[in-house]
Write a structure and sequence with these properties.
heterotrimer, A mainly alpha (about 280), B mainly alpha (about 325), C alpha/beta (about 350), A: about 280 residues, mainly alpha, MetI-like fold, C: alpha/beta, ten-stranded mixed β-sheet
Amino acid sequence: MNLETKRKAESFIALTLSGLAAAVGLFWLVYILGDVLINGIGALKPSLFLNDPVPAGVEGGGLRNAFIGQLMITGAATLIGVPIGVLGGTFLAEYGRGSRTARAISVLSDITVSVPALVVGAFVWAIVVRPLHHFSGWAGALALSIIMIPIVLRTTEDMLSLVPWTLREAAFALGAPYYKVIIQIVYRGAATGILTGILLSMARVAGEAAPLLFTSFNNNFFSGNMNGPIASLTVTIFQYAMGPYKSWHEQAWGAAFVITLFILTLTIVGRVIIWWRYKR
Amino acid sequence: MDNSRKHNYFDLLFASVTAVASFTVIIFIIGIVAVLFNESSLAIGRFGVVNFLTSTVWDPVKGIFGAATTIYGTVVTTVFALLFSIPTAIGIAIFVTEIAPNFLKTPIGVAIELLAAIPSIIYGMWGLFTLAPIMSRYVEPALKASIGKLPYLGFLFQGNPMGIDLLTASSILAIMIIPFTASIARDSFNLTPSVVKESAYAIGATRWEVVKNVVLPYSKLGIFGGAALSLGRALGETMAVAFVLGNNHRIATSLLDAASTITVSLANEFTEADTDLYLSSLYYLALILFVMSFVILAVSKYFLLKAERKYSR
Amino acid sequence: MKRVLKIAVFVLAGMLSINQAFAVETLNGAGSSFAYPIYSAWAYAYQKVAGTQLNYQSIGSGGGIKQITERTVDFGASDLPLSPADLKKSNLIQFPAVIGGVVPIVNIPGVKPDQMRLDSQTMCGIYLGDIKFWDDAQIKALNPTMDLPHNEITVVHRSDGSGTTAIFTNYLVQTCPAWKDKVGTGTSVNWPVGIGGKGSEGVANYVQSTGYSIGYDEFAYAQQNNLTYTQLKNPAGKFVSAKSETFEAAAKTANFDPKDDFNLMMTNAKGKDAWPIAGGTFVLLAKDKKAANIKTAKFFNWSFTHGDAKAKELIYIPLPKSLKDKIRAYWKANGIHY
């Protein structure tokens, strides 16, 4: 009886502690998101999106240059990263299926996903920025796409592998060549999954500041020139939050709010698509 | 016949294109290592390997560089972050898989994954504006007055509680990696066959006993892999710590001292290293960081693959 | 799938053509954060009248020297002038743009701007870590009437390569032998104590948010953010306030000479009212970047002609007319016909 009580008490304490752990985890989420929300919404004014920065220490101005720059860099990174990632994933799941090389690449990709993003920036600085003698939006896009490729590659591989093999055999039996089977049948079957992977990889790179510091650099003006330095939200947040000016802090919160909203929306949309496509 | 030749040709073409695309991953890894090595060759030649790793001098005026202080900062922030985050993460995983009523499981799981999606720069900024003042005003003076007075542990909490230090940086890093560790731990818990759990319940085990004696042993490989993954992530994290670490190239014994990590040094000094040797030393740091995180991530992957193979059958 | 590919190609082509459509005349400069407030103000006004966008990034003087040496920007900016030999080695030329003062900034509750008095010995002691508390006997001796708290001093310095640091450490090296032995002078040094802020902006931010701290910054940052700056004792033995008049008194002693590429520091300037930590901020040009140099010279020529009022507003000291003419002649002598 006594032992029984002790066991129950022990169980109760341990489980309460884990419940508390969950509460602590959620507490930080609410705290951080709440802070970004409260401070961010206060900073959301039309001028934040419509104006370019004003000189340091002067009130007013906005971050139009950084919003557009961020979209251009992320967009260009997607255009470079997605085709390579999808095609690479196709090799792993189709032509190279089960081979030692394909398995090795798959494992290496998983590792590369978590490799320090800053190091990728230093790499791109050495191979692009220095030889070409200028910082550029393209260099930033390249750095982001290097981070993006393994993510897209792995999701594509997984999603293609989920397409039943019998489907391909049916198409082979009709005399279709493998490349047509992949493009017309396998891709169609895995399209939603691949799309999700793309969305999630965009969410991942859109929040990266470290690889952009030495590549796309920054620009105080609105610039659509991907061959020159270009502003991004993340680098601007780094600069503005570190600075002493009140108006900078306010705009940094605004930028943080927009980018968090953008990324969480992409993530949620991605999850919903997976749930809708595969759970039902 | 002609048609099939054309098809063969296209098939080969498509296969080659996909193969090349998949090889870009390997090309990038080799390229990164080669470039980092090439750029750091000057510093490697000047300072050697052991000497660079153990030297605590980082003196741009005299042109003498050593990695010990930044490696120290990197390891200390990461280790303390893991100490704070792993118990919380495992607690979350237990709660989500074993305790929470079904209608709560999905929302909590989703919330944790959203926490993982928040960009690190938001954590860093929040740390500077919100957490650092709280630390310097309330938490750190309290720790200094309590644990700081104790004999053996006291040295950890000495000095000026300014909020820009190892403790704040580790805390932010911890909050950031909780979701990674938690979601991997949860996935490993879910791999425990329910038959085994049910038989344990059938012989009268309490919930905690099931977790302690069945679920945890079953999923320890996965938890270990998850912890290693978080470790690898934390090592390479820049923006979450850059705001609040204080950029100081010194070996600090107290958690209330400023320090520097490899990533923070790179972020601050990379574009402004004015001599070739200085830049080369920074690339040397980048190389060390790349090798460290690559090895740790490879170990993590090894454990996760092993866990998957062992229990998914 | 084909349609997706088509859209991708279309968007990519669109982005490439945007490059052409947005081809506004731009100029990329980087470096000194000492000069950032005035350069960004000039750039903003210049874009309105000339249409040229000067994108000036405040990454620190070390960065300015580095990036122009690597030719990744059109001009570099540094508060630490390079010697003619160093300039020659990297094929650079150099000229001053404006003069400013570096001031100690403190955050002690109750202390007002221009109230506390410090000298080179106390600054040296604080930055070496020898003076640990605000009520240290040495600080008290300089401020007998002030009620100083027994709180630990949080020292704030720069984490990046900084010309402000070069000027500040140059000042300490000249007046404090212990500093010369242990630390030295340069854009980045091996700091004995303290936390490092990124850029002048970062130092101002840390001092602002950390109680009982001390830092050093160009005066514009102190002024724009209402930070508490202190008085300093100059080599003439007088306590002087940080203001236009004392900066100007220091600037008057300077004799910039185009023959050695204007290489000159003006710390511990002689003169009864001179501020001891003043300095010029310099622009570095790559000789081989001919087109960029013309654009840069045009910008600074405009600033020299129309920018003095803005500089004074931010408590910088505009260069005297005679020096400006010397610089214009220097440009011509180096083949920059702006």
